[in-house]
Amino acid sequence: ESYTQCPLTTDRATLINLMKEVQTDLIEDGTAIGNGLATAVARMMDSDSPSRVVILLTDGVNNRGEIAPETAAEIAKTYNVRVYTIGVGASGEAPYPVMTPWGVELRNIPVEIDEDLLKTIASRTGGKYFRATDNTKLSEIYSEIGKMEKVRITVDNFPVYKELYGGYALAALICLLFLLILRLFVRRLP
After folding, report:
1. pTM assigned to the model
2. Three-class SS string for the chain?
């Protein structure tokens, strides 16, 4: 299963806020590479951009989902979406939260990354496979992808208006109240 946490945007602050709100318990546990890739491609199908790119970042082996990763790669190729795949993490074991009768417990689980699958997806779509074993390497990979994929986009900025009527409305209300009070206490001459 997969879903879109944040639609395509140039608003970095919005993206960061939405990434802070990621809830990992919303969908079934596991790695659905095919579903994730198909969801990403579906979000870009109507784009008229000359360069459409998906960065597929995974730390596991495809073990969930209705769409096979190879099928999703063919869909991406059909819609001219280039897929850069990144296998993340070190080989061996990693701590993973497991629910036990006594609560959540961290257990070491073997980490496997299907590098052959990731290489296949990248090559079929005209992308490239990368391996990141730490945050520094991941940053370098993103920089390299950024250098390969340069496209000018136009961004429509909408002006933000500051409403100024509040002060005038308050002044008018005070004048109106003053006139009403004045009418109550001041007598009219005939």
Report:
1. 0.71
2. CCCCCCCCCCCHHHHHHHHHCCCCCCCCCCCCHHHHHHHHHHHHCCCCCCCEEEEEEECCCCCCCCCCHHHHHHHHHHCCEEEEEEEECCCEEEEEEEEECCEEEEEEEEECCCHHHHHHHHHHHCCCEEEECCHHHHHHHHHHHHHHCCCCCCCCCCCCCCCCHHHHHHHHHHHHHHHHHHHHHCCCCC
